[in-house]
From TrEMBL:
<keyword id="KW-0503">Monooxygenase</keyword>
<keyword id="KW-0472">Membrane</keyword>
<keyword id="KW-0349">Heme</keyword>
<comment type="function">
    <text>Catalyzes three successive oxidations of ent-kaurenoic acid giving gibberellin 12 (GA12), a key step in gibberellins (GAs) biosynthesis. GAs, which are involved many processes, including stem elongation, play a central role in plant development.</text>
</comment>
<dbReference type="GO" id="GO:0051777">
    <property type="term" value="F:ent-kaurenoic acid monooxygenase activity"/>
</dbReference>
<dbReference type="GO" id="GO:0005506">
    <property type="term" value="F:iron ion binding"/>
</dbReference>
<feature type="binding site" description="axial binding residue">
    <location>
        <position position="436"/>
    </location>
    <ligand>
        <name>heme</name>
    </ligand>
</feature>
<keyword id="KW-0560">Oxidoreductase</keyword>
<dbReference type="GO" id="GO:0005783">
    <property type="term" value="C:endoplasmic reticulum"/>
</dbReference>
<comment type="pathway">
    <text>Hormone biosynthesis.</text>
</comment>
<dbReference type="GO" id="GO:0020037">
    <property type="term" value="F:heme binding"/>
</dbReference>
<keyword id="KW-0479">Metal-binding</keyword>
<dbReference type="GO" id="GO:0010268">
    <property type="term" value="P:brassinosteroid homeostasis"/>
</dbReference>
<feature type="transmembrane region" description="Helical">
    <location>
        <begin position="6"/>
        <end position="24"/>
    </location>
</feature>
<dbReference type="InterPro" id="IPR017972">
    <property type="entry name" value="Cyt_P450_CS"/>
</dbReference>
<dbReference type="GO" id="GO:0016020">
    <property type="term" value="C:membrane"/>
</dbReference>
<dbReference type="GO" id="GO:0016125">
    <property type="term" value="P:sterol metabolic process"/>
</dbReference>
Length: 496
C-alpha cells in the first residue's frame, strides 16, 4: 500500500505537465481559431505554436543552425506539400505560402491582399515607407522614385560612375592585404546608392549612415524585444540616429535651395522635396525620410551580398568562372580602340554573366520572405485565409524546390540555358505592383563589378570552410575574410 502511494505523486506530476503542455499548445488555437466559426474548419494545415512566441523559436533555431530549411521542412513533413500552412509568427496568426502558384496569387492580387509587415518592422523602417503606405500612395511614389533608377536613360548615366569607383575599389583592396570582402562590398554599393539618392550630401554622411543601417538590419527580422542587449533595441536606436542624420541633410538642402545654391545634379532628395500630388500637397519630411531609408537600405544590402556570393561561387566553380571570364574578354575584343569604359549596351550583352547573377539570386534568396495581410476572407487551394491574418510569402521554398530546379542547392548557371522561368518560380525581386523598383540598378552594379573582377583579379579566401549565418541575410560567418589579388598580365592590359 505504501509502495503504491509512492508512485502517485510522480504520476500526478507527469500527468499535470502533460496537461499543461496540451493546454499551452492549444492556447493560440483556442484564442484565434475558435472565434472564426465555421471558417476554422477550412484553415490551412499547420499549428499556431506556443502562446505569445508561436513558431518563432523554431524559426530562429533553424536559421541560427546550419540547416535553415529545416524550419519549413517540419511543415511539409507533417502536413504534406500543400503549398500553404498556418502558423503564428511575429506575434500574429499567419499563413505561409510556399508554392509558385500561391506566392504569385498573394503578390499579384491587390484586391485580396495588402502590405502586412509586422508592427515592429514598421517602427524600424517607418510608417510612411513603401512597406506601410496604401497601394495608391505606393503607385504614386513608385512612379516618382523609379525614374532615377530604372530605364535605359537613367542607367546609362550611372555606368561610368559605377565603373570608376569599382576600378578604384578593386585596386585599393588589392593593396590592403586581408579584408572582409563582404564589408568592403557593402561600403562600395552603399557609396553608389548614396550618390544616386543624396548627391552632394552623400560623402558627408556616408560612413555614419552605413554603420546605423547595419544595426537596423539586424533588428528587422529579430524578435521585438526592446531591452538593452537585444538586436531590436539596438535597431530602434539606429533608426533614431538615421532619422536625425537625414533630417539634417534635408534641412541643409532646403536652405541651399532658398539661397539658390543648386547641387551639381538633381537627385532623389530634390525629387522628393518637389513632388506634388493632384491636389498640390507636397511630402512632409517624415515621408521623405522614410522613403529614403527604404531605398538606401534595400539598395545596398542586396547588391553587396549578391555580388559577394556570385564572386565566391564562381571561384568555387572554375569551369563557370572561365566561361564568364571569356565572355568579358570577348566584349573587350569587340570594342573600338577609341572607346573608354563600359557602355550599357555592353552590359546587356553579358548573357552568361546574367545567368550567373540569376543563379546566385535563386540559390541565395536574399529576401527569404515578404509580408502581406488578407483584406477579407480569401480562398486559396481550397483553404481559407481569414481576414486580418498575415500572409508570409516564403521565397526559399520556391527557389529551392527540386521539382522546379533539379539539384536546387547546386550552383549551376547553365540551368538557365534556354530556360524561361514560369510565373511564380523565380521571385528574387518579388512580383506584382510592389515589385522591387531597383532591380535593374542592382543587376547593373553586380555586372560591372564582376566584369572588372573577372578580367583582372582573383579572390583568395582565408577561411574557405567558414560556416554561414542566415539572419538577417545569408553570409559567411567571417564576412568572407580574403585577399584580393591581381591576376597575371590580362587581355585588358594588352588593350590599354
Amino acid at each position: 500500500m505504501e509502495l503504491g502511494s509512492i508512485w502517485v505523486i510522480p504520476i500526478c506530476i507527469v500527468l499535470g505537465v502533460l496537461a499543461l503542455k496540451w493546454i499551452l499548445q492549444g492556447a493560440n488555437g483556442w484564442l484565434y481559431e475558435t472565434k472564426l466559426g465555421e471558417i476554422q474548419y477550412s484553415l490551412p494545415p499547420g499549428d499556431l505554436g506556443w502562446p505569445f512566441i508561436g513558431n518563432m523559436w523554431s524559426f530562429l533555431r533553424a536559421f541560427k543552425s546550419t540547416d535553415p530549411d529545416s524550419f519549413m521542412r517540419t511543415f511539409t513533413t507533417r502536413y504534406g506539400r500543400t503549398g500553404i500552412y498556418k502558423a503564428f509568427m511575429f506575434g500574429k496568426p499567419s499563413v505561409f505560402v510556399t508554392s509558385p502558384e500561391t506566392c504569385r496569387r498573394v503578390l499579384t492580387d491587390d484586391d485580396a491582399f495588402q502590405s502586412g509587415w509586422p508592427k515592429s518592422t514598421m517602427e524600424l523602417i517607418g510608417n510612411k515607407s513603401f512597406l506601410a503606405i496604401s497601394l495608391e500612395e505606393h503607385k504614386i511614389l513608385r512612379r516618382l522614385t523609379a525614374s532615377p533608377v530604372n530605364g535605359h536613360e537613367a542607367l546609362s548615366l550611372y555606368v561610368n560612375y559605377i565603373e570608376e569607383i569599382v576600378i578604384s575599389a578593386l585596386e585599393k583592396w588589392s593593396t590592403m592585404g586581408e579584408i572582409e570582402f563582404l564589408t568592403q562590398l557593402r561600403k562600395l554599393t552603399f557609396r553608389i546608392i548614396m550618390y544616386i539618392f543624396l548627391g552632394s550630401e552623400s560623402e558627408l554622411v556616408e560612413e555614419s549612415l552605413q554603420k546605423e543601417f547595419t544595426a537596423l538590419n539586424y533588428g528587422v527580422r529579430s524578435m521585438a524585444i526592446n531591452l538593452p542587449g537585444f538586436a531590436y533595441h539596438k535597431a530602434l536606436k539606429a533608426r533614431k540616429n538615421l532619422v536625425a542624420i537625414l533630417q539634417s541633410a534635408i534641412d541643409k538642402r532646403r536652405n541651399q535651395r532658398k539661397e539658390n545654391i543648386s547641387s551639381k545634379k538633381k537627385d532623389m532628395m530634390d525629387a522628393l522635396i518637389d513632388v506634388e500630388d493632384e491636389t498640390g500637397r507636397k511630402l512632409i519630411d517624415e515621408e521623405i525620410i522614410d522613403v529614403l531609408l527604404t531605398y538606401l537600405n534595400a539598395g545596398h544590402e542586396s547588391s553587396g551580398h549578391i555580388t559577394m556570393w556570385a564572386t565566391v561561387l564562381l571561384q568555387q566553380h572554375p569551369e563557370f568562372l572561365q566561361k564568364a571570364k571569356e565572355e568579358q574578354e570577348e566584349i573587350i575584343r569587340r570594342r573600338l580602340p577609341t572607346q573608354k569604359g563600359l557602355t550599357l549596351k555592353e552590359v546587356r550583352e553579358m548573357t552568361y554573366l546574367s545567368k550567373v547573377i540569376d543563379e546566385t539570386l535563386r540559390l541565395i534568396t536574399f529576401s527569404l520572405v515578404v509580408f502581406r495581410e488578407a483584406k477579407s476572407d480569401v480562398n486559396i487551394n481550397g483553404y481559407v485565409i481569414p481576414k486580418g491574418w498575415k500572409v508570409l510569402v516564403w521565397f526559399r521554398s520556391v527557389h529551392l524546390d527540386h521539382e522546379i530546379y533539379p539539384n536546387p542547392k547546386e550552383f549551376n548557371p547553365s540551368r538557365w540555358d534556354n530556360h524561361a522561368p514560369k510565373a511564380g518560380t523565380f521571385l528574387p525581386f518579388g512580383t506584382g505592383s510592389r515589385l522591387c523598383p531597383g532591380k535593374d540598378l542592382a543587376k547593373l552594379e553586380i555586372s560591372i563589378f564582376l566584369h572588372h573582377f573577372l578580367l583582372n583579379y582573383k579572390l583568395e579566401r582565408l577561411n574557405p570552410g567558414s560556416s554561414s549565418l542566415y539572419l538577417p541575410h545569408s553570409r559567411p560567418k567571417d564576412n568572407c575574410m580574403a585577399k584580393i589579388k591581381k591576376t597575371p598580365y590580362s587581355l585588358v592590359k594588352k588593350q590599354m
